[in-house]
Amino acid sequence: MDGLIFFHKLLIILGFSIPVIYIFNKLKFPSIIGFLITGIIIGPYGLKLITDTAGIRLMAEIGVAFLLFTIGIEISLSRFLKHLSEFLLTGGLQVFFTFLAGFFIGLVLQLSISQAIFIGFLLSHSSSALVLKMLKDRGDEESPQGRISIGIILFQDIMVVPMMLLIPFLTGDSGPTTWAITWKLIKSILIIVAILAAARYIIPFILERLVNTRMRDVFVITSIVITLGIAWLTNALGLSLAIGAFLAGLAISDTDFTHQIISDINPFRDIFLSIFFVSFGMILDLNFARQNYGYILTISFIIILIKAAIVFGLVKFLKYPFRTSMLSGVLLSQIGEFSFVLALQGFKNNIISEYVYQLFISASVLTFIVSPLLIPLAYYALSRKGLSLPAEETKTDQIVSVNNHVIICGMGLNGRNLVKVLKETAINYVIIDLNYQHIRDAHKNGEKNIIWGDCSNTEILKHAGVKTARVLVIAISDRFLAKCCLSVAKSLNPNLHVIVRTKYVTDIDDLLDLGADDIIPEEFETSIQIFSRVLKMFHIPNSIILAQGNIIRNKSYGVFRQVRYTQEAFDQISQILAQGTIDTCYIAADNANIGKSIKEIDLKAQSGAMIINIIRSNKTITNPPSNFILKEADQLILFGSHAAIDAALKILGGEEKET
Q1: CA distance 359 to 402
Q2: What φ, ψ does residue 458 adopt, rounded to 5°?
Q3: Do residues 590 and 652 make contact, with C-beta atoms less than 8 angstroms apart?
Q4: For a Cys staple, 476 with which of 198, 244, 410, 488, CB 3.0–4.6 Å?
Q5: Whole-angstrom distance, CA of residue 568 vs CA of residue 426
Q6: pLDDT computed for residue 329 by the predictor
């Protein structure tokens, strides 16, 4: 019977979500707001279709766990460890200063010391589910603001443990000793390290064995068990479900199974995460909100303003540009889900009254509703063409004096590899990067023409010599910053050749409209490499393969994107396959044909292919006579149909080499 009741609740949530989300998508509003509104409508303070939310809360926590798991996979353990010090620094400073702000607000409101401390606890958390969902929807997890936001919310989640332990102190009870709290923190860190280490070596071993069985259903179930199992284990040991799921994702992030696991888990994640946002809408008491809307609006505005300002100032202090600082502040401006857990404990322990509790809940839910509107608005405002941003500080010795050079935006893997090639070919270049650690490392390695700053900033591009540059390479992970950089650069130098790297198919048309000359979508370039190798197996010359790749690139990858282009590329390939082709055969030391003449081998009669040239000692012998004797290291140039070339290579028994 209980199962049917739970099934009934789930049907109500999903059934009501469909029309609400449809309407919000038509209005181009974020779907998160639609889920929150759905919760308000069907919850205990709305139509009362669902009054007991205990089971719903459990499903909501599972949704957050799945989300953190996929985020952990996509961040990867190696990249997480590389930026660990940055995560700890930004997260620690954010929690500390936000706590101080809440504490002083409590004192100004003439609350007791205990209550002021508790207000600091509540204010210091942001929503991991909302922030990660917004970043994931925008494909912005790897951007500077994405990396900063993820680091801060993970640190906030860890800090829930000591905050929960300190609640008995705030009530006047003796509570745990200082040593007990310290040991709890140390134990939490040891648990995280132990789980991460164990999962790192055990889970890939298990997954590899399962993959070899070729049982897809077992693999899917195992992926879910791993996610929820490690999440449950960390929860049982005193940490949160979310932290455990994130650790599970990190543990298998650098294995060969990540993409399949993400595709298997995504449907479950999306459903459970939808329930999470619906459950938050359910806790809003509409009658209380109607009676105290003035206080609620004021408190919500103060919360958003204070939290955004603290993060903005902190990120700016750490030498990040204006855009990154602003977006980080807006992303983390709402109250987090763990604040609701703390608020409930504070209410039960009489730290705050029921009135203050309801006031906090109402204001917090409002920040949840406002944040999904503020975030895209901030992205739009900061990425809009022609927007004047505050100029970043640039030293006078960073002004370059080179001409006809390459400007490289971003010192990631692609940027560093390009720098190596440009150095070897003696081509001048200037680097722009907004990661200050990259700047310091580059200076240590002797780089001179490197500028710290926002590559979409007009002054930064001018300092990089954009007006006299020949090529601009945009190799940054922030897709919106890339578009803004492209727009500004083209306005400063319309003749500049701009090459843009992107991970997202949907960005191709926008980048073309903004004036990009070459777009390199990682997924499609991989496809071109695959078909190039397939064509080589049919002995199609490299020049023709390159031409086919250029045809697809010139069509803006329309064939792969299923855009309505002509079948020119595929028709040409068909014509080429029907014609003759040229290939080479290398005579190795152990080749059985060494010492034989062309007449003895009788290649044309046996295969249909002809030997048209022979290269020996770097000299080319055209139309070799029939009595020509083959020697070791000869390179034969063959002509014939594709089938004839295949047969000839088998007869010659040589090593096939690229032309």
Answers
A1: 61
A2: -60, -45
A3: no
A4: 410
A5: 39
A6: 92
127's CB contacts (< 8 A; 6+ apart) are: 153, 334, 335, 336, 337, 368, 371
Q: With CA atoms as reference, report the closest residue to 118 among 300, 360, 301, 461.
A: 360
Task: Collect all residues with Cβ–Cβ distance below 8 Å to 58 and sequence separation of at least 6.
Answer: none
Please report, for residues 74, 101, 276, 332, 572, the alpha-carbon distance to residue 362 in angstroms, rounded to integers and kept in the order given: 34, 20, 17, 18, 65
Q: Specify if 235 maps to a domain.
A: yes
Domain limits for position 432: 396-516
Mark whether 296 and 259 lie in a shared domain. yes
* 177 in a structural domain: yes
Q: What is the pLDDT of residue 480?
A: 78
Q: Which of 484, 475, 582, 470 is nearest to 520 (CA)?
A: 475
- Do 406 and 508 lie in one domain? The reply is yes
Whether 23 and 62 map to the same domain: the answer is yes
Do 645 and 568 sit in the same domain of this protein? no
579-630, pLDDT tens digit by residue?
567 778 888 888 888 888 988 888 888 888 888 888 888 888 888 888 899 9
Compute the distance between CA of residue 331 and CA of residue 115 in angstroms, rounded to an integer.
27
Beta strands in 384-524 (DSSP E): 406-409, 429-433, 450-452, 471-474, 497-502, 518-521
**pLDDT score for 306:** 94
The DSSP call for residue 393 is P
DSSP classification of residue 567: S
Sign of the CA dihedral with 600 first, then 603, 605, and 610 last? negative
Q: What does the alpha-carbon distance between residue 406 and residue 389 come to, in Å, rounded to a whole number?
A: 24
Query: Is residue 255 located within the same domain as residue 185?
Result: yes
- Beta strand 610-616 with 581-586 is unpaired
Name beta bridge partners: 408. 431, 473
Query: Which 3-state string (H, E, C) describes 200-225?
Result: HHHHHHHHHHHHHHCCHHHHHHHHHH
Q: Provide the pLDDT for residue 350.
A: 85
| Cβ-Cβ contacts under 8 Å for 509 (sequence gap 6 or more) | 556
pLDDT for 69: 77
Contacts of 458 (CB under 8 A, 6+ apart): 388, 391, 488, 492
400 found inside a domain: yes
Domain count, the chain: 4
Q: What pLDDT sits at residue 214?
A: 66
Q: Are 181 and 197 contained in the same domain?
A: yes
Give residue 181's pLDDT: 63
Q: CATH code at 641?
A: 3.30.70.1450
Q: Among 441, 471, 342, 327, which Cα is nearest to 389's?
A: 327
DSSP assigned state of 389: P
CA–CA separation, 454 vs 327, rounded Å? 13
* Domain assignment present for 521: no
Asked if 394 and 328 touch (Cβ cutoff 8 Å), the reply is no
